[in-house]
TrEMBL record:
Naturally occurring in which organism (per UniProt): Nonomuraea endophytica
Transmembrane segments: 20-40
Keywords for the protein's UniProt record, in alphabetical order: Membrane, Transmembrane, Transmembrane helix
Top-level taxon: Bacteria
Protein name according to UniProt: 3D (Asp-Asp-Asp) domain-containing protein
Amino acid sequence: MIPSEVLDRLNPSAAAVSARWPVVIGIALTLLLAFGWGLIPRITHHEPDTASARLVTDELGRVHGRVDAMTHTFTNEALYPITLTGAGVRAEHFSVVGAALPKVVPAGGSVEVELLVEYTSCLEAAEETAPVILDVSAWWGSARVAASVEEDAAPVRWHEMFRESGC
């Protein structure tokens, strides 16, 4: 048994965590999460602006197919500038075969990108809704993100663009 005079000399708060450590840890975690959230590229996809059909020809002028050129506007919602380096869609009946990239988008800025779209079945592609997938590079590295549709807007209606271009 420990004598009482020894227990009296011991500091009762020696093993206790001080009240400020949980506060410091909480602030550090909050800052870490806020910094991490700021690293995620956030891109808003606005309704496509224009569409036109183009014939694909070789150097002799022979026609090899057709693509639709569609101009899309993307807004960088992140807190830092980004570079769009690639574009595509998750769709079964059409695909992006070309894009006027790379383009630098400042923080809070917008950029228009012309996407060249080729489809395998016009009727089925006209009813498909597909997000635009962008390859993004920034000061910290690169990522592949789906562009979110602007608030108060329906999903991107590719079928309207296909019909406008004569699909």
